[in-house]
User: What shape does this take?
Amino acid sequence: MIQGVQIELISADRLSNLTSMEKIRTILDSVMLGNIVVLERGLTPDEQSKLVEVTMMEIRPGGFSGIEMETYPGKEAESGGIFSRIFGGKRPQGRMTVIGPAGQLKMLKIERDRLVAWASLTGR
Amino acid sequence: MSMFGRAKQRLSKFFQMLFRRQRSRIGIYGPPNAGKTTLANRIVRDCSGDAIGPVSEIPHETRRARRREDVVITGANGNTLVLDIVDTPGVTTKIDYHEFLEYGLEQDEAISRAREATEGVAEAMHWLREDIHGVIYVMDSTLDPFMQVNIMMVGIIESRNLPVVIVANKTDLPDAAPSRIKSAFPQHPVISVSGLEGTNMTELYDLMTEHFG
Assistant: This one.
């Protein structure tokens, strides 16, 4: 039997039609099944904060142990702030984000505009 | 006391309650083991002679937010500020009790620690959205500042327009490189500090009175 990791790419269009909690449930339900989720456009800071909060509530000793989440820092972290002055005070669109089960997804390289991720077939 | 005196006293209390300025509640946030509680203890000890909580090399020693009220911060500039300081559990997206076993904890103790830590992190994130007026964000200056949790947390703090002072902590360690934190977050005030040794604390208090006042 061929073993592998399911990778789910979710388009910005699909996410934009969901409420914040629906987005978080969509992501977490998939990650809790062992999938790697790639969001074409990431979550807002508020949604990220809620994602962490809900993730914590889902952690079970010996079971789901949380998520690994990475977004490349981009220009925002380098210069004018996350909602930087270069955006004229406007919120920039979220950046592509990779989310996977903790212990199964590891980031090998995080650069300004490039992420290199490694996924194992099994968790801990 | 005359009727007039009592009425005057009641009226005075009423106006005091009506116009009393709410104290700012300042959250100390950061990833696990960045030295948040050591720093919180240092601030509270300097300002009130007390401590806020125990510290440990095992991650998630702080599993519940701890609040110390009426902490009087005085900067070298003479400015004074009364704050509530909230020391929070280290923010993370994952908690695995196996990690605690490596520090010699028994399985039951490790599981219990993990359970409490998850609740504490959830609570800290909730507080950040609802109850915090300013943030001291603590980073370990021996580590890469571009850790996802730092990028995410600074983004959340900015999106809520909360005043923030970033502390590049653990400058007493030989491989500390606070300049990396300064260049990673040039849009915010960054101060190099050793919470353990208490270096540069006066400069931190100056920044706090400036940004949280």
Summary: The longest strand of chain A covers residues 105-111. Strands of chain A lie at 7-10, 36-39, 67-71, 97-101, 105-111, 114-119. The two ends of chain A are 21 Å apart (CA to CA). Residues 11 and 40 of chain A are 5 Å apart (CA to CA).
